[in-house]
Design brief:
The chain has 542 residues and is α/β, with parallel strands linked by helices. It folds into three domains: 178 residues, Alpha-D-Glucose-1,6-Bisphosphate, subunit A, domain 3 (Alpha-D-Glucose-1,6-Bisphosphate, Chain A, domain 3), CATH 3.40.120; 223 residues, Alpha-D-Glucose-1,6-Bisphosphate, Chain A, domain 3; 131 residues, Alpha-D-phosphohexomutase, C-terminal domain (TATA-Binding Protein, 2-Layer Sandwich), CATH 3.30.310. It has 18 helices and 27 strands. The strands form six sheets. A seven-stranded mixed sheet has the order 2-6-5-3-4-9-8, with helices on both faces. A seven-stranded antiparallel sheet has the order 20-21-24-25-26-19-27. Strands 11-10-12-13-14 form a five-stranded mixed sheet. The radius of gyration is 23 Å and the shape is globular. The termini are far apart. The structure holds 1,6-di-O-phosphono-alpha-D-glucopyranose. 1,6-di-O-phosphono-alpha-D-glucopyranose (G16) binds next to loops.
């Protein structure tokens, strides 16, 4: 058996997990001991590892294979009985959650920087998911961080690298490494939730779609499910081969970065439906022909139509959304007579609600939608849910969404991102907003009902999370919200979320940038964005 070596080390500053794990440049992760310190801190923080099984996989980005070899040797040194690794080191984030739950493992380590670019000069990331399948809650990430700040050694075995490309079991020290098909369990789960017969019939009858995998992890999943199992024509999946640098792309499924898809869905001859997913397969963007569905509306429409999907035929227990997500899903929950939950940004906050059976569907404005089938947001799940609804209703995406607005009213919504701004300026801007007392003030045609820094008490475990975003809410329910992103690796990103409810169907067709123009100006002025950041325009508008 290979000898366990104890390697002395010293703490690195800044190993604090953000919205979703630790994300840094590859060059930071590649420094001697950097990854090892973090992994040891995880192992030290999650209890007795003896005899347990861990799942490991990633989105295939640059450094994925190197990191997996290190993690395997450290897991063997720490007493794990077995590690399950997706073939080629590949495992989408929702598939990892699926496998953790299905095989009742002691959680998993997911290597991804999600929608951030990949390559030697780009981003890498790591996070630990708990046995329930979801991202570690704050109590655990804080314990991991505290451990990184006092670490003095880590354990690793000396052994040759493991073959990650052949399915099967092999030994590593006293541990078993099981390389498995990363697609099979996930595809089976999807088949149990959605009406594959109806979707297959729609494709057979000429329904056309494009799915943009953005050269990221969902390529193999989408090809197997959409083309092989559902019979969509070959070529339905675009950019389907995962590449270490995502083909020099930015695997973020939004209107700016998924431009090939947006172009393909434009014009009279365009397919009926378009969708894209991100680096690690948990985000989604939904398009109809010449029509963009905001993530908030997507959650609302899917919730309103959930019973058309066999896995949800008995209805939903509740709908949860992050605070900056529009209130469109709340309107559906009210009509269905089920609870609507408002949580801080970060999928980890949905875990307790899902485990307790308080919510079935969850979603975030940041292109995340999912349900209690796993404990991560799930890009392909959202695509299949839409396909199921489209196949049964036999209407266009635009017709379904505009009919939804007529029934519920439209929560007109937009997010403006100011990326790569100076961190000190960003912090100063947030402090300035925190200091404002606006209740009763008149801004343009709006009167402020209240402003605060969103704090959340988890209704299941009572844990409290503070400073989760500045809200300025007006008397008519319109609002502007300000947050700093917790997923970036360079400088700061200011996110400004703008929302107004429009009950009048004759105005539903208006471009949100026009319909929200006055609130956009109010937000910029309130936060003194130009004076504090030097920016006159956002870098990304979604
Ligand atoms: C992560 C989290 C999401 C969150 C998103 C945006 O997504 O899992 O829950 O909404 O970040 O976070 P921020 O606004 O702080 O950048 P992903 O897809 O990056 O894992």
């Amino acid at each position: 058996m290979a000898a366990v070596k104890t390697i002395p080390t010293t703490p690195f500053s800044g190993q604090k997990p953000g919205t979703s794990g630790l994300r840094k440049k590859v060059k930071v992760f590649a420094q001697p001991h950097y990854l090892e310190n973090f992994v040891q801190a995880v192992f030290d923080s999650i209890g007795d590892l003896g005899g347990k099984t861990l799942v490991v996989g990633g989105d295939g980005r640059y450094h994925n294979r190197t990191a997996i070899q290190t993690i395997l040797k450290m897991a063997a040194a720490s007493g794990f009985a077995k590690v399950m690794v997706g073939r080629g080191g590949i495992l989408s984030t929702p598939a990892a959650s699926c496998v953790i739950r299905k095989y009742k493992t002691f959680g998993g380590i997911i290597l991804s920087a999600s929608h951030n670019p990949g390559g030697p000069d780009e981003d890498f990331g790591i996070k630990y998911n708990i046995p329930a399948g979801g991202p570690a809650p704050e109590a655990i990430t804080e314990a991991i961080y505290a451990r990184t700040q006092e670490i003095s050694s880590y354990k690793i075995i000396e052994a040759a690298d493991v073959d990650l490309d052949t399915i099967g079991e092999r030994g590593l020290g006293g541990m078993t490494v099981q390389v498995f098909d990363p697609v099979a369990d996930y595809a089976e789960l999807m088949e149990s939730l959605f009406d594959f017969g109806a979707i297959r019939a729609a494709f057979a009858a000429g329904f056309r779609m494009k799915f943009d995998a953005m050269h990221a992890v969902t390529g193999p999943y989408a090809t197997e499910i959409l083309e092989n199992r559902l019979g969509a024509p070959k070529g339905t999946v675009m950019n389907g081969v995962p590449l270490e640098d995502f083909g020099h792309g930015h695997p973020d499924p939004n209107l700016v970065h998924a431009h090939d898809l947006v172009e393909a869905l434009t014009g009279a001859g365009a397919p009926d439906f378009g969708a894209a997913s991100d680096g690690d397969g948990d985000r989604n963007m939904i398009l109809g022909r010449d029509f963009y569905v905001t993530p908030s509306d997507s959650l609302a429409v899917l919730a309103a139509n959930a019973t058309l999907c066999p896995g949800y035929a008995r209805g939903l227990k509740g709908i949860a959304r992050s605070m900056p997500t529009s209130a469109a899903p709340d309107r559906v929950a009210a009509k269905l007579g089920i609870p609507a939950w408002e949580t801080p940004t970060g999928w980890k906050f949905f875990g307790t609600l899902l485990d307790a059976g308080k919510a079935t569907f969850c979603g975030e404005e940041s292109f995340g939608t999912g349900s209690d089938h796993v404990r991560e947001k799930d890009g392909l799940w959202a695509v299949l849910a839409w396909l199921n609804v489209l196949a049964v209703r036999k209407q266009s995406v635009a017709d379904i969404v505009t009919a939804h607005w007529r029934e519920y009213g439209r929560n007109v919504y937009s997010r403006h991102d100011y990326e790569g701004i100076d961190s000190a300026a960003a912090e100063g801007l947030m402090e300035h907003l925190r200091g404002l007392s606006l209740k009763g003030e008149r801004l343009g045609t709006y009167t402020v009902a209240f402003n605060d820094d969103f704090a959340y008490t988890d209704p299941v475990d009572g844990s409290v999370s503070k400073k989760q975003g500045i809200r300025v809410v007006f008397e008519d329910g319109s609002r502007v919200v300000f947050r700093l992103s917790g997923t970036g690796t360079e400088g700061a990103t200011l996110r400004v979320y703008i929302e107004r409810f429009e009950p009048d169907a004759t105005k539903h067709h208006l471009d949100p940038q026009v319909a929200l123009a006055d609130l956009i100006t109010i937000a910029r002025d309130l936060a003194q964005i130009e004076a504090r950041t030097g920016r006159t325009e956002p870098t990304v508008i979604t």
